[in-house]
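Need a sequence for this fold. Nothing fancy.
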């Protein structure tokens, strides 16, 4: 396509940038052919013009669509170029926190500088068995691919890990080895995988150091070969090392450290065993303090030292060798502190008695003089003489450092050799996987010999990498039958030739080293002369004659020639080596013993400015070539070892891991584009991209292409042939046919074509969206228009109505105004008229009034004159009368005063007595009546006084009348009156005084009345206050009762909650213990299987077998009785195999000892767990029993009923015995044949007794059933009561308190309540009341003014105390009586149960055995009574013993007599029965017409012993045949299909019943052990067959249920029929074997789960995630090269229907085999957990699955699974809950993810997902279409902030290996054993029915 089609407006491109390397920009104008400038806009909105190169006119790189950003595989990008790769890595690393990315066959790993939780065992299990492209990129995916290809192609593999220092190479290699160790396991006698992992801390301690770029930088290269056997288990490993940086031993740059081991030794110097090394802190030694950074943050060197020592121990390096290694390392440190001084300019000296040199010599076992001498001298040899020459100080120091480096290199090689020895295996290696951890391309400011060798190695590796990539591309093209055209790629063979070819750099360097006076300068001149003009890759710097430049594949590197020759020669003073060889230290001698045979030459000569020193360890050579090998230069040795490495890599299938260092500051998740691009160019990732882009990088299968680009096709273009459809569409869409090629299964596209197709697809979808939007907007607009039209019409209607109403209102108002005007005018006129009328009337009134007043005044003056006259005359008369009256009154007053004073004195005395009485009796209620009576008396006195006053008034009136008469009489005699005038005045005064006294008396009376009324009111008020107080107390009492009741209810609820929580906790603890126990059983089974496998292998390895006894290992038995009983079948089978004598040289007995020790430990732990489980169950049962005993109430009536029933049964039993005696006497009395005829008395009595007996038997059976049902109901009631604890009686007491009304009961309830801490706070009113009542000096006036209420309250309180004490005493006595009765009831129950068991057992025995059993029981009972009596009183025991012996003798005699009588009666009964039959037959012949109601065939009791009792008898020698036919050779798909479910279990139990019946313990033990071992054997043989495992799980559970159902225990006999109770085991208690069978059932269940998981595992991911159940919902994105052909297995595609069909198969098989329903529910729950966990784990590890459409698919699939549960009625089994995390993950993919409200909704919705899982899903969320949006980083941070308070496990993935603890609820069978028929197909004819 033309550029104008792609470089259009809004197209996004990449332009170069100085800071960010590449920047994104957007075109603001279409590009036209010939334009020299592009108009661009940056992301920050800045406009710029990008000028094109006029020479090349190359356009900038196009940017990929957003949906391709963040892809797992870089080759999936449509545009493959550097900016696209860089941006994709940055987005994944920064935004999604993903450190791994595929680039074709290369895994790019970016160092996060942070510990990530993505390397756990759960992640390993998730990647195990998966194809490389199916999961997100990971180092585990590369390791799994290598492991899978090794197993599939049987070809050795290599994983090449490369990168800069600090990029994470060592960690990546370590995790790859951990993956192999975890997945493959070990096949040898030792844990090789642990040893392989243990080699890492050792090699890190001696080969890793801190640098400025990395805290744990590997300073050597290593290649580890992990060996596997034919079953691909690890059997051993081998390590090769390259280029050890020895110069670090003696020199470190700033902020760097020496090797870790030195600092670990210094940190552990305080340990006692290291005291002899005389070490100190690291700052005290010259070799460890130069970098001035002795400590690494977060690293504890002492702890790391312990880890290193443990690793040495694990690899077989004993303590003495370890101490030897530490001595050598410590001596190196001391050697570095040896001080050399100048003697003169040409010589040096070490001061005598140098402390560090003395310690060095002491530790190394050499002489001080020799070592100090040769450190300052050297020996020169000529042809004839030898000279010893002193050396200057600088050379002496260099010689010292060279010795230290040489010793360390020797020690390093020795450790590597011993690690290899420890990892070596005697078993034959079938294949291996190599892990190469080697340095990447290096370039520094100063590059020397070390960087030259490193870059040379990288050139070789890059060449191998290019050839491999080229080869894979060619294979892919040829496989798809696409024309292959050579792709031009960079070939670095010229650069390699420049270095290693003849006359190359290394060759000239070796040649110069051989010259006597060779130097770096002369070597540089030779390089210039040889290559400067002939090789374009070789250049000379302009400003230097001692350097050269080589153009490597990654970059140009300038090397400084200084030091090349010395480093290549690698010399050391031989005399110093001789001194060390003469050491007394054995380990040191061992290091230097094979100096001439050394497998690696020692380090380079010392330099002062060099960066590093190297050593090379090539492959082992022959001994004869050792001296010659030692003379080789370092460069030659390195070249040879590199050639060997390349040969090894070329012989394997390589896998590449390129480690990238994101920044130089070790900051977590910080990306530096410059550094990243530099490393991407250097490590070959971009070269891979270039090779891919040169051909057809984008590849689609036809189905994927059709699914993705179906929208670009028309209906007529869609054909049935997908290939032809794609061809037709592509020919229309892409005109240039060179842009694509059609392969057999795929379509190949050139770079950029997928982006073009995506653009067409997006345009088509955009056009469709626009059309949909247009239609929807039209519909919305029309709908809006119709709504507006309807609204306008409605508005018009309402407005017009409003206007009409306004008009009508106006008219009404106008009319009303007129009316108002009329009436207003009328009112004005009337008002005016009335005002005028009123004025006229007023004027008339005033005139008439004036005239009337004038008349009135005249009359008034006349009348007043008359009055004056009258008054004057009256005054004169009154004056006279007054004078007369005063005289009379004065006389009266004198007399009356005397009498009044007397009366007043009496009244005052009485008043004073009343006041005193009133003061004395204030507040007394009982005096009120007295006062009232007193008031009445006073009222009577008042009445009497009133009467007296009335009499006085009457007498006064008479006297006045008389006085008037007298005055009248005296008027005539004026003279006499004048004489007596004074006397009258006195009398009048006296009368006046008496009147005043009368008034005073009346006032006093009124005051007394008012006081009485006031007193009465006060008393009434006091009474009302007392009533109010009484009411208040009652209300407080009611409140207290209500509070007590509420708090009682709260206490009850609290106790119930506590009981529920405790029960839940106990259940959880029980489940945990059960889970641990089942895990131990699993571990034990695994060890057993491992032991059996080892035994088989040993059997196969034995060449000459010898007959003899075979030793039985202690691990052979797993559980209690298995270790006790040995099966004869097992012994015979073992014997049939023949004895084996294993050679001691081959068999390592330590393995058996380890296994025995491990098994014993597991058994002990299992036993302890079992004991703990039993103890907890016993505690729980005791608690339940204790609660049961505490709350049993009122069972006396039921006990009485039971005792009455028992007495009635005993009486009926006696009655039956009496009838039997009568029958016997009748039979004895009439023995002749005639008497036995029908109708005879004997015959009649016999028949009557038989009928009566049958009737009584039926009645007794019904009564027994009724009694049993009552007992069961009572037990259930007691169990129900047991769930309630203390609050029940407490609630009853509270109820009683509520019904009471007295204060005392409220007080009692309050006191009882106070015992609870919840009632410590009372209401304020109650506190005040109680404090007032309990105070020592109560305020009686406040309580009650007369104090009687308090006295009454105190009396009631004392009464309540007495009642409470009596109640408590009665309660204690009642509880004691109940306890005694309960004990008696329990003993009676136990006796009754024993009697019932004895009766049931006796009924099953033959008649001869019944008597013996009865006698034995009687003896046992007497013995128990004897023991009880002996424990009570020894004297009574002696007498009782004598009486018992006599009684036993009597019993024996009676027994013998009874036996004789019984036998005699049997014979007589047989004779009588025979005669009766004969007579009946004869009677029938004589009178055939007669009919009788008598039964024709009477019951013959002895015959019932011959009925089938549900037992099978077999001979001892047939046991093997029984087990073989019934277990080993029984096929569930064959014969077992048509059998009764659980038939083998029934048959085995019936055989076991017979062995119990005959009391053969050996037979029982042998049968059970044979059955258990046979089931284990068949499961081991066919454990992968789900049907077989399900069949034997069902039968094992049924056998276990049979053992419980027929054990005789009451708890298992509730649902048995009487016949089934008769079939209970009678002689043996098989409880221990029930535990063994339970353990076996657990093992079978776990085997069933594993088998089911193996079947479901391949289906889950494909069916739940990959398959599109809803077609067309999810689109397919470009996949690139990650789904490689080598990784795709040839297996069918599974769908959801496949999973559901498989679930149906599982369910139908289990139902067909009769598996318990509860067990089926547990299996289904486990199935759904596996489905949910595997699906969620894959979802969390697959970025391509985290999309909106995939969430819809998952939710639909889950709904289908739920529908399956509903169809099977399994919704209550808990299976749906196990899918909750998956459901929430699917919802999380579909919900909106933008705002804070969305974050809150997500946090509340996803409660079953952990924070890590939620964040992972959000990070992985990937839009499939351009219309979806990514989740912003800010939103993810918001989610993390909201979820940070959650307390949960940080684990990301769900554990798919979790198996819920299984339980086997008791499920009794209703099938009667006697009805079971054995089919002939089982070949069990040798079994006899009994």
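Here you go.
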């Amino acid at each position: 396509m033309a550029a104008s089609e792609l470089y259009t407006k809004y197209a996004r491109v990449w332009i170069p940038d100085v800071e960010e390397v590449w920047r994104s920009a957007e075109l603001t104008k279409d590009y036209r052919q010939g334009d020299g400038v592009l108009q661009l806009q940056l992301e920050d909105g800045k406009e710029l013009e990008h000028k094109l190169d006029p020479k090349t006119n190359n356009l900038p790189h196009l940017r990929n669509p957003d949906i391709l950003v963040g892809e797992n595989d870089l080759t999936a990008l449509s545009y493959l170029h550097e900016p696209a790769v860089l941006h994709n890595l940055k987005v994944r690393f920064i935004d999604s926190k993903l450190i791994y990315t595929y680039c074709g066959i290369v895994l790019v790993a970016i160092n996060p500088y942070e510990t990530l939780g993505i390397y756990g065992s759960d992640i390993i299990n998730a990647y195990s068995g998966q194809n490389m492209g199916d999961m997100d990129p990971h180092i585990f995916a590369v390791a799994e691919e290598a492991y899978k290809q090794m197993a599939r192609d049987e070809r050795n593999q290599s994983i090449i890990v490369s990168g800069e220092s600090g990029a994470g190479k060592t960690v990546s290699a370590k995790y790859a080895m951990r993956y192999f160790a975890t997945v493959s396991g070990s096949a040898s006698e030792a844990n090789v995988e642990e040893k392989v992992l243990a080699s890492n801390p050792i090699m890190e301690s001696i080969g890793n150091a801190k640098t400025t770029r990395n805290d744990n930088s590997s300073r050597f290269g290593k290649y580890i070969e992990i060996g596997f056997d034919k079953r691909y288990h690890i059997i051993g490993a081998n390590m090769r090392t390259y280029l050890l940086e020895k110069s670090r031993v003696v020199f470190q740059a700033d902020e760097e450290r020496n090797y870790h081991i030195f600092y670990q030794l210094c940190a552990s110097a305080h340990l006692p065993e290291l005291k002899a090394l005389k070490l100190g802190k690291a700052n005290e030694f010259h070799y460890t303090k130069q970098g001035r950074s002795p400590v690494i943050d977060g690293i504890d060197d002492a702890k790391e030292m312990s880890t290193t020592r443990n690793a040495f121990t694990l690899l077989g390096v004993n303590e003495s060798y370890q101490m030897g290694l530490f001595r050598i390392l410590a001596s190196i440190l001391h050697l570095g502190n040896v001080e050399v001084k100048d003697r003169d300019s040409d010589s040096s000296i070490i001061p005598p008695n140098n402390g560090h040199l003395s310690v060095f010599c002491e530790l190394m076992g050499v002489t001080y003089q020799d070592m100090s001498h040769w450190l300052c001298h050297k020996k020169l040899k000529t042809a004839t003489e030898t000279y010893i020459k002193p050396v200057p100080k600088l050379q002496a120091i260099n010689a010292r450092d060279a010795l230290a480096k040489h010793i360390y290199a020797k020690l390093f090689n020795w450790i590597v050799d011993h690690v290899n020895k420890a990892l070596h295996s005697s078993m034959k290696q079938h294949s291996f996987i190599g892990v190469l951890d080697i340095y990447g391309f290096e370039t520094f400011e100063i590059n020397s010999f070390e960087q030259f060798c490193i870059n040379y190695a990288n050139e070789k590796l890059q060449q191998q990498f290019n050839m491999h990539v080229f080869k894979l591309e060619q294979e892919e093209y040829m496989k798809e039958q696409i024309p292959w055209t050579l792709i031009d790629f960079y070939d670095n063979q010229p650069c390699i030739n420049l270095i290693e070819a003849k006359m190359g750099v290394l060759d000239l360097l070796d040649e110069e080293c051989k010259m006597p006076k060779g130097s770096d300068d002369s070597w540089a001149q030779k390089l210039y002369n040889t290559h400067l003009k002939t090789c374009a890759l070789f250049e000379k710097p302009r400003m230097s004659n001692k350097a050269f430049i080589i153009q490597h594949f990654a970059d140009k590197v300038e090397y400084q020639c200084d030091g090349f020759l010395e480093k290549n020669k690698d010399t050391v003073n031989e005399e110093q080596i001789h001194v060390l060889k003469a050491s007394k230290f054995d380990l040191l001698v061992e290091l230097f013993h094979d100096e001439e045979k050394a497998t690696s030459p020692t380090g380079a000569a010392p330099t002062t400015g060099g960066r590093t020193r190297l050593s090379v360890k090539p492959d082992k050579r022959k001994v004869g070539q050792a001296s010659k090998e030692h003379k080789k230069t370092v460069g030659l040795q390195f070249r040879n070892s590199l050639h060997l490495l390349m040969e090894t890599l070329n012989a394997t299938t390589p896998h590449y891991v390129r480690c990238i260092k994101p920044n130089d500051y070790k900051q977590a998740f910080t990306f530096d584009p410059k550094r990243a691009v530099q490393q991407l160019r250097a490590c070959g990732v971009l070269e891979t991209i270039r090779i891919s882009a040169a051909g057809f990088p984008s590849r689609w299968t036809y189905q994927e292409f059709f699914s993705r680009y179906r929208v670009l096709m028309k209906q007529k273009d869609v054909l049935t042939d997908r290939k032809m459809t794609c061809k037709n569409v592509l020919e229309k869409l892409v005109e240039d046919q060179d842009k694509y090629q059609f392969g057999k299964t795929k379509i190949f596209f050139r770079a950029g074509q997928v982006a073009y197709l995506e653009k067409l697809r997006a345009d088509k979808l955009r056009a469709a969206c626009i059309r949909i939007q247009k239609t929807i907007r039209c519909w919305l607009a029309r709908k809006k228009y119709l709504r507006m039209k309807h609204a306008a019409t409605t508005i018009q209607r309402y407005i017009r109505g409003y206007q009409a109403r306004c008009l009508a209102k106006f008219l009404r108002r106008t009319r009303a105004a007129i009316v108002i005007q009329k009436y207003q005018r009328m009112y004005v006129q009337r008002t005016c008229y009335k005002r005028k009328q009123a004025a006229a009337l007023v004027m008339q009134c005033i005139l008439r009034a004036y005239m009337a007043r004038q008349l009135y005044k005249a009359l008034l003056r006349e009348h007043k004159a008359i009055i004056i006259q009258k008054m004057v005359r009256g005054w004169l008369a009154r004056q006279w009368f007054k004078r007369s009256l005063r005289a009379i009154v004065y006389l009266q007053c004198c007399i009356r005063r005397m009498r009044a004073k007397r009366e007043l004195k009496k009244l005052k005395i009485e008043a004073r007595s009343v006041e005193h009485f009133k003061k004395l009796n204030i507040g007394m209620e009982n005096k009120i009546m007295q006062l009232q009576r007193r008031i009445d008396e006073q009222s009577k006195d008042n009445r009497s006084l009133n009467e007296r006053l009335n009499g006085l008034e009457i007498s006064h009136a008479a006297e006045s009348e008389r006085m008037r008469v007298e005055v009248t009489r005296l008027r005539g005699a004026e003279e006499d009156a004048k004489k007596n005038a004074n006397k009258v005045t006195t009398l009048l005064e006296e009368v006046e005084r008496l009147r005043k006294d009368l008034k005073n008396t009346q006032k006093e009376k009124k005051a007394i009345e008012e006081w009485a009324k006031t007193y009465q009111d006060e008393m009434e008020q006091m009474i009302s206050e007392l009533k109010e107080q009484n009411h208040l107390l009652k209300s407080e009492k009611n409140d207290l009762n209500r509070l007590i009741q509420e708090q009682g209810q709260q206490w009850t609820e609290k106790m119930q909650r506590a009981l529920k929580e405790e029960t839940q906790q106990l259940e959880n603890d029980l489940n945990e213990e059960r889970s641990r126990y089942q895990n131990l059983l699993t571990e034990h089974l695994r060890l057993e299987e491992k032991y059996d496998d080892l035994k088989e292998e040993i059997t196969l390895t034995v060449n000459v077998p010898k007959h003899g006894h075979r030793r039985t290992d202690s691990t052979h038995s797993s559980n209690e009785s298995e270790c006790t009983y040995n099966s004869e079948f097992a012994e015979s089978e073992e014997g049939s195999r023949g004895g084996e004598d294993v050679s001691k040289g081959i068999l390592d007995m330590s393995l058996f000892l380890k296994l025995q020790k491990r098994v014993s430990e597991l058994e002990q732990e299992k036993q302890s767990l079992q004991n703990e489980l039993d103890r907890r169950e016993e505690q729980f049962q005791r608690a339940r029993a204790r609660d049961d005993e505490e709350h049993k109430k009122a069972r006396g009536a039921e006990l009485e009923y039971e005792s009455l029933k028992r007495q009635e049964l005993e009486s009926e039993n006696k009655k039956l015995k009496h009838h039997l005696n009568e029958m016997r006497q009748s039979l004895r009395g009439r023995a002749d044949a005639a008497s036995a005829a029908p109708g005879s008395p004997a015959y009649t009595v016999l028949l009557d007794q038989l009928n009566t007996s049958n009737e009584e038997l039926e009645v007794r059976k019904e009564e027994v059933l009724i009694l049993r049902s009552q007992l069961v109901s009572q037990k259930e009631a007691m169990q129900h009561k047991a769930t309630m604890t203390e609050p029940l009686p407490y609630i009853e007491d509270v109820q009683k308190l509520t019904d009471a009304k007295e204060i005392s009961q409220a007080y009692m309830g309050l006191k009882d309540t106070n015992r609870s801490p919840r009632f410590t706070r009372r209401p304020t009113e109650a506190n005040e009341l109680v404090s007032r009542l309990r105070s020592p000096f109560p305020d009686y006036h406040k309580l009650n003014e007369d104090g009687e209420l308090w006295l009454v309250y105190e009396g009631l309180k004392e009464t309540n105390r007495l009642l409470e004490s009596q109640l408590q005493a009665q309660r204690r006595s009642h509880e004691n009586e109940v306890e005694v009765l309960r004990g008696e009831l329990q003993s009676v129950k136990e006796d009754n149960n024993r009697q019932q068991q004895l009766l049931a057992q006796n009924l099953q025995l033959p008649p001869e055995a019944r008597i013996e059993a009865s006698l034995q029981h009687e003896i046992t009972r007497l013995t128990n009574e004897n023991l009880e009596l002996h424990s009570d009183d020894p004297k009574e025991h002696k007498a009782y013993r004598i009486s018992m012996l006599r009684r036993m003798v009597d019993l024996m005699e009676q027994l013998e007599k009874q036996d004789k009588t019984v036998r005699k009666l049997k014979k007589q009964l047989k004779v009588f029965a025979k005669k009766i039959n004969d007579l009946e037959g004869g009677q029938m012949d004589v009178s055939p017409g007669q009919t009788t109601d008598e039964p024709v065939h009477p019951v013959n009791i002895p015959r019932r012993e011959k009925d089938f009792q549900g037992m099978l008898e077999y001979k001892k020698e047939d046991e093997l045949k029984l087990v073989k036919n019934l277990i080993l050779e029984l096929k569930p798909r064959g014969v077992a299909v048509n059998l009764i479910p659980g038939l083998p279990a029934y048959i085995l139990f019936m055989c076991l019943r017979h062995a119990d019946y005959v009391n053969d313990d050996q037979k029982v033990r042998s049968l059970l052990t044979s059955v258990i071992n046979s089931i284990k054997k068949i499961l081991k043989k066919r454990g992968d067959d789900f049907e077989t495992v399900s069949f034997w799980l069902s039968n094992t559970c049924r056998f276990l249920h049979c053992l419980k159902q027929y054990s005789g225990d009451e708890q298992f006999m509730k649902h048995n029929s009487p016949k089934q109770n008769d079939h209970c085991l009678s002689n043996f208690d098989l409880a221990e074997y029930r535990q063994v069978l339970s353990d076996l059932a657990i093992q079978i269940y776990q085997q069933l789960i594993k088998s089911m998981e193996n079947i479901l595992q391949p289906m889950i991911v494909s069916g739940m995630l990959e398959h599109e159940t809803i077609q067309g919902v999810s689109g397919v994105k470009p996949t690139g090269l990650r789904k490689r052909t080598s990784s795709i297995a040839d297996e069918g595609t599974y769908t959801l229907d496949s999973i559901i069909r498989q679930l149906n198969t599982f369910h139908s098989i289990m139902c067909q085999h009769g598996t318990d329903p509860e067990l089926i529910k547990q299996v289904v729950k486990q199935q759904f957990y596996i489905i949910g966990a595997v699906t969620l784990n894959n979802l969390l590890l697959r970025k391509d699955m985290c999309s909106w459409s995939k969430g819809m698919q998952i939710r639909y699939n889950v709904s289908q699974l739920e529908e399956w549960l509903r169809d099977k009625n399994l919704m209550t089994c808990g299976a749906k809950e196990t899918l909750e995390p998956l459901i929430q993950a699917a919802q999380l993919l579909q919900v909106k993810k933008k705002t804070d409200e969305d974050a809150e909704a997500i946090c509340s919705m996803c409660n079953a997902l952990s924070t890590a899982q939620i964040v992972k899903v959000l990070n992985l969320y990937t839009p499939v279409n351009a219309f979806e949006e990514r989740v912003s980083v800010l939103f993810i941070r918001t989610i993390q902030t909201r979820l940070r308070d959650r307390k949960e496990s940080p684990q990301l993935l769900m554990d798919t290996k979790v198996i819920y603890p299984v339980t086997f609820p008791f499920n009794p069978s209703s099938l009667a054993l006697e009805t079971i028929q054995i089919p002939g197909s089982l070949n069990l004819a040798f079994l006899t029915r009994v």
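For context: Residues 667 and 705 are 42 Å apart (CA to CA).
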